[in-house]
């Protein structure tokens, strides 16, 4: 595999289906942000000592290749592996599992994120996931994006948030004091 091909020297890149597009196109921005999320989850995994959560994050990282691959096709049909309803339901199960292990205050109050490296890095991944979702929504205005991709990325931000909350070593709640 060649690392440099020189085909992108003029600001274009090839999609998975060999279509040439500008490197700053919303499509490239969408799958590039998914790639950034995947790398950030990899960093987060180095801080996670809980084996089950680490395996969950690893599985999500593999699924993100399918998300990015599908986003990297202009017609949405040529990428062989696609995220579908079972993967979305699996994310919902993960959320339910970890929320069931928290009390009401832990689930519903705003916190200052990041009381340890694992939770802090997952919170960073969560914000990247939400940016990826925004980019995908923008892409959806000019190209057909399967609903399952949108749902998956939306649920994924919830999963990452739930895992980050679960891994906090202490919760620093945000109190809002309005002066009347």
List descriptors.
mainly alpha, Hypothetical Protein Ta1238, Chain: A, 2 strands, 60% helix, elongated
Structure description:
With 180 residues, the protein is mainly alpha-helical. The chain has one domain (12-167): Hypothetical Protein Ta1238, Chain: A (Up-down Bundle), CATH 1.20.1200.10. It contains 6 helices and 2 strands; from the N terminus they run E-E-H-H-H-H-H-H. The radius of gyration is 18 Å and the shape is elongated.
Shape field: elongated
Taken together, the total number of domains comes to 1
Q: Could you name the CATH class?
A: Mainly Alpha
Per CATH, the architecture is: Up-down Bundle
Mean pLDDT: 90
Uncertain ranges: none
Oligomer: single chain
The CA-CA distance between the termini, in Å, is 65 Å
Number of DSSP E strands: 2
Q: In which range does the helix fraction lie?
A: 55-70%
Query: How are the strands ordered across the major sheet?
Result: 1-2
Q: So how many helices?
A: 6
What would you report as the Rg, rounded to the nearest angstrom? 18 Å
Structural class: mainly alpha
CATH topology assignment:
Hypothetical Protein Ta1238, Chain: A
CATH H-level superfamily title? Cobalamin adenosyltransferase-like
The biggest sheet, with number of strands, parallel, antiparallel or mixed sense and barrel status, is:
2 strands, antiparallel
Strand content: under 5%
Write down the secondary-structure element order: EEHHHHHH
